[in-house]
Amino acid sequence: MRAGVVTFPGSNADRDLAESFRKAGADVTMVWHKDTELPAGLDIVGVPGGFSFGDYLRCGAIAAQSPIIRAVKDFADKGGHVLGVCNGFQVLTETGLLPGALLRNAGLHFVCRTVGLKVATSSSVFTQGYNAGDEIMIPIAHHDGNYFADEATLKRLQDEDRIAFTYTANPNGSMNDIAGILSENRRVLGLMPHPERASESAHGGTDGAAMFRVLAEMLATA
Amino acid sequence: MKARVTVHLKTGVLDPQGEAVRHALGTMGFDGVQGVRQGKVLDLDLADGTTKEQVAEMCEKLLANTVIESYTIEMA
To answer: Is the ipTM of this complex over 0.85?
Structure first.
């Protein structure tokens, strides 16, 4: 698998994400936000967590207008896989690659702790390493993770089995306890929790490792 | 020329910051504040001849996220 990981000014989980891809056996290239093209032959692009552009205006709003994101959109439109974690999820909703938006946490606090997630569907390359209904422990660290979408969008996500993960105890006010969602073609995943921060034993948990392991298997470069 | 763009959360979108401000005002003894909605104001300094339509395009593409926010534009 060949992975690209985007770095914006203010990204802070880009190297963690790259390391998780590498540990799973991927060949990883870091991509700068000002680049106008992705390296050729990528199987997946990671949009990492952090505070791109200082969260100015809205979380992810400025990053969503950066040159590399145009290339990421093209890549996704052509059927490429994209994983957006935390700020990366916010960026993907701001670009329109995923529906809805992330609002300020209902409790107004920055929440930084490991939370329980329920795998809501195993039907995607991101979640195939789990069984639907599995409960896994993954850290979150965000101020704006309160997922919002209008009723029609929520119904569509539900009907199309596009809710990937839900919180077992809602930490931020997200509608329907949503922690992560898939695109219509199931090749774009955005989630607030950080699977790359639970991917080796030194992290205190390894429940995120299955995502990277299965991605690397499924997207193995021929 | 200048334009003032006001961005606010749409009706029905939870505004926890506004709610916290409302609560604080109540605690301070300002009774009767039934609701607070927090928004933001962006003052744009524009080249002469910029149209309201162009500012609206800026709002649609960047200044507001129309999934959750609405905006008003005052040209001056």
So the answer is: yes
Given an 8 Å threshold on Cβ–Cβ distance, is B16 in contact with A107?
A: yes
pLDDT tens, position by position, A163-212: 999 999 999 999 999 999 999 999 999 999 999 999 999 999 999 999 99
Q: Is A110 on the interface with B (CB under 8 A)?
A: no
Domains of chain B, start order = 2-75 (3.30.1280.10)
Distance from CA of B21 to the nearest CA of A (A): 11
Other beta carbons less than 10 A from residue B32's beta carbon: 6
Q: Residues 146..165 of A with a Cβ closer than 8 Å to B: which?
A: 146, 148-150
- Cβ burial of A112 (10 Å; 0-12, 13-18, 19+) is exposed
Q: Which of the residues A33, A86, A94, A203 is marked catalytic?
A: A86
Amino acid at A175: M
Question: Rounded to an integer, what distance in angstroms lies between the CA atom of residue A128 and that of residue A144?
Answer: 27
The structure's pTM equals 0.94
